[in-house]
Amino acid sequence: MTNKRVVVTGLGMITPLASSAEKTWEGFLKGRSGTGRLTQIECPKFSSQVAAEVKDFDPSLYFSPKEVRKTDRFVQFGVAAAKMALDDAQLDITKHDPTRMGVLVGSGIGGLRIIEEQHKVMLEKGADRVSPFLIPMLIVNMAPGQISIALGLKGPNNCVATACATGSNAIGDAFRIVQRGEADVMFAGGSESAITPLGFGGFDAMKALSTHNDEPEAASRPFDATRNGFVMGEGCGVVILEELEHAKRRGAKIYAEMVGYGMTSDASHITAPDPTGEGAARCMTIAMKDAGIRPEEVSYINAHGTSTSLNDKVETLAIKKALGEETARKVKISSTKSMTGHLLGAAGGVEAIACILAIRDQIIPPTINYKHPDPDCDLDYTPNEAVCHSVKITLSNSLGFGGHNACIAFRSFQG
Question: Which of 246, 342, 355, 377 is an active site residue?
């Protein structure tokens, strides 16, 4: 059976830069930082005091007051981004078969905030005062569940939870569903909102977070020699993947074609990437083979680029292994986490959209806060300023705790 072609027809994004795909993209191209002093929680004993928080999101635009009280913030982000993508795609669901439209949106952590709040209620007021909405507010699959309910999507409905690889795995798995002809349309991506005392505190205890507290807007500095940890963020990225002929029949705007997907496991360590970069390199190689592209055809790589010492060094090594040293030195690379912080399970969704818009506008977003070259990170990371460049094929890398690696490939659309 011949695989069906899959195109991107809608985008929805909520980030620390803006609750809009286009405004976030504008922020990327201007090199604007979305990181700052931690405000959502007060924990002065934490070593890190910086975060990348979403500040302009208004859930009342998408939910009734009663619904707001019954949904966790990561679910609110997911539903809102899906509705943004739907509007962007100008897709009228009532004119199509809803059983052929589905959702695959994941989260790395889910409703941690409600767990913490209700645990406090139980300890202070008793178990009989725990909210009856606790479970449906916290479970990770409630993001795709609520999206399907809100939009009336009755096709495949699933959830991915592969830590920081979640968003890319979700988009990749949805790509396969459309390729196989099991759905005509899939809403796919990741959503996360876990800046809570436990969530932030757990990463802080691991010494994973940046401690550049004196320069909060420059705390996320991927590939820079002075990087010392990631900046914890929150947000959501959802794309609409559509079977090509379905998109053509309704006259859809097509951003790009999704052409490849790879996933591998390091089988090495629960939190650290394999120091050889073998798993991440193999993942990129699989994605390129799946797409039928050669390494020298890759125009741009949106790196996982977390701003941690080991990740950035290992990813650089992996890119060299996957593309070959000479080709790796020619490809444009950047980490948009320098501007959004690390959105955990949402990162892959947001970074896929950065790749798609780079193709649309023929421009590479920068890696900001890059001032001190690291001998171990010696590729072209598009430092500090966006660059106009021919962009035909992009790769987006995501690496997650547990050794998860995911890579997705997009190509400029050619009918």
Answer: 342
